[in-house]
Amino acid sequence: MTLLSQLRADLADRAGKSLIRRRRTLDTPCGPHAVVDGRQMLSFCSNDYLGLAAHPALSAAIAEGAARWGAGAGASHLVSGHYAVHERLEARLAEFTGCERALVFSTGYMVNMGIAAALLGRGDAIFADRLNHASLVDGALLSRAEHHRYAHGDTAALSRLLAGSTARRKLIVTDSVFSMDGDIAPLAELLALAETHDAWLLVDDAHGFGVLGPQGRGALAAAGLAHWRLLLVGTLGKAAGLSGAFVAGHADVIEWLMQTMRTYIFTTGAPPALAHALLTAIDLIERGDALRATLATHQQQLRDTLRLAHWQRMPSTTPIQPVKIGDNAAAVAAAAALWDDGLWVPAIRPPTVPPGTARLRISLSAAHTEHDVSRLTNALHRIESTP
Predict the structure, then answer these.
(1) What is d(CA 345, CA 335) in angstroms, rounded to the nearest whole number?
(2) Is 371 a catalytic residue?
(3) Catalytic-residue membership of 76
(4) CA 188 to chain centre
(5) Tens digits of per-residue pLDDT, 143-172?
């Protein structure tokens, strides 16, 4: 069998297990009401939690930034690609998150791929929640440190692992809001364990930044946590409505990361026009209590009105509201039935989630309306009850 024929067989096998992913194409700006593959749809797919992706202030800021700074950075940050507007954005993010310093990246994946390798190596150890995002898993593997995974949210299991470790340096790694479950990590307990066992604590706040905490400052702010041991990763392509990411923490730690993170050193800087627009996005988040209140209202409406007989709405107090179906094919069929009704809700299957837990991943936005949420719940009730 040739390499190509083997690849075709593997694709057929994935299709048979309902694991094939489909890429759809939008022909309108990001928002709940979108033209997708040429069809008008109501979307519950986006991580645009505050509805900022198509906000006119951000569109204007992008244009203004391009006029002022041009289109591209031209080089890596440590050569000639670091602009005054990047510096202002980093200072603004540090102030907003209550950290001493921040470092901006083009994507969250780049941050998570690079931090562990910059802090650890052979002879060190990483302790990671089993449901962490793939980027955190890949970053742990790239570091060459021992990789210990504890059961989701199980701080007792983590405590035992830490107590039994003889590693020189230790790093606890967790999502704040888990992207496929919508639940929140026990951050205060994790920081206490980091203190007890002299470990770093890396918190990926991709789905909490902009949504949780006072003025949307994130999950750590919501928990009232601040410490030099903490490294906060935030994503700027979700609630902030644009793209990019950052890591924030103690000034000395951020300086070390700037000097050693390969994913920062060996890549072209993000466009300065984007940094210019992100300053506006942070202002919108800071003033966005009304948007967060609308989002909370939608979450409560879904919890109050969705009454499922066989499927399970998973417990979540965040905009991520999964409905667990279990079987891969059944989840795909449910997503297809919703699509036929004009509702775009993705079916999430292994290996993204554990086997037997295939689900519909509902993402709510402040840009949705009460009618949009009602339309979704009515469709879910109808589809679940249809043999």
Answers:
(1) 6
(2) no
(3) no
(4) 20
(5) 999 999 999 999 999 999 999 999 999 999
